[in-house]
Amino acid sequence: MHNSHPHEAGEDTSDLNEEKSYQELHRPSSEFASRSDYLDHELTIMKPRRWKLNLPGRDFRFEWEDLVPALAGTIGITVMYSAVMSSYAAGYGLDANFVIENVRVEMLVSAILFVILTSGFLNPRANLAGNHGPMIPLIGMIAMAGGHPLALAILLGGFGLILSITKGGSRLVKLTGQGVAGGLLAYLGLTGTASQINSLIEWAGKMNVGYVAFVVLLVNIVLYAYLARIGKRWLSIPLCSVAAVIIALALGAPFEFKTGPGLPNLNPMYWWGSTETGWKLGLPNMQHFIASLPFAILAVAMWSPDFLGHRVFQELNYPKKAKNVLMDVDDTMTACSIRQVVGTAFGGGNITSSWGTYMIPAAIAKRPIPGGAILLGIMCVIVAVVGYPMDITVWRPVMSVALLVGVFLPLLEAGMQMVKDTKDTQSAGICIFASAVVNPVFGWSLTMLLDNNGLIGDKDRSKALSFVDKVVIPGLAFGICFVAMAAVGMLPGVPALVPAFR
What we know:
This protein is mainly alpha-helical. 68% of the residues lie in helices and 0% in strands.
């Protein structure tokens, strides 16, 4: 029996397995034909406790594969936090010291309270609360419109909690058809890939080492292809990042360490209590809340497609019986909402969402959330306190390569993998088209409405849906997204409805 394939063993004793604990069902990796079989078995026997204490050994284990998403997530979040704080600093006229200190605040608060405590120990089905990448380009607009980071955080957290309590997030995910999801992932993957390649080429040009970008990308294309060929794609972030550092330095790309060890100020009053310290904005007033409102609605509207992408990635890479370890969309929304308010109260400026640079490599490496989350939290604390690793992770060759191989290329591949027949191709094509016209939220919400009504895609699927699932929920999702985008001037060629945003 010990030599049987884990899937077969699970199927033969499914009733008994329901009663047995993870500890009782765990078997050493030496009893399996391959490492992949062992990891599959681990995923199928786990039974995470929801909002209760989960313990290493009793409820989950640490495996060396957990280091990969932990490292990828640390690189990814340092990059994203730095991008957010730099955008805010430019919008509010703050200096480079503000950026470094604020990144440190976010890394410490999110790592200790929400990565280690929440996703590691209290609810391993809530994906880590990370960064909301699609909102980064809007940060300059938030500042110009008179928005306030704390007002935005309070609104975003409130809307997110309403959506999670009403289970609206998971409902939207279920109503997103295969073709729509595939098109969304493909679009996000394609545009992100192009953006990172352009950023690396542009950086190399500015540094007068234009050839560095080409050589780094060429070597990483070959390395990524080789890792995919031998089934070790989950190693792509650490190996490709190391390759990028070695090649860029060897070819003469400039690099220096600037950020020394230190601890940030974690006193909320330092950040928000005065116009002389921290953000230099003081506490928000009613005008700040009004100016921040459309952006908060838009950020929460973007959560569902973001969460959908990460959950789909688990479904594509985990064995079919591993239902217990898939991220719970509503629990992830709860964690993100609370993390948004708490993190910003401590002084942070991050806009949060499901942590893609952690989840995607974790899914590829066939690992559940908790082990890697705890390792990631520890790494983030080390990076924030020591300081020097922050310089390496935000160095353009490392940043672009890590995001390319760890997030955008896997997203592109997953999107193409989901589009399996003509009906799905039609929905995917319209989703990509509509996303290119405005943005992915517009593309997702419009295509979901058309797809659920049978106007495109699988007409049989549409017939099986109720009126609420077919018209009411997709219609509301599209309407809310459309009005929020129109209010802040995100519809091409259409002036902002709210004068303050013009």
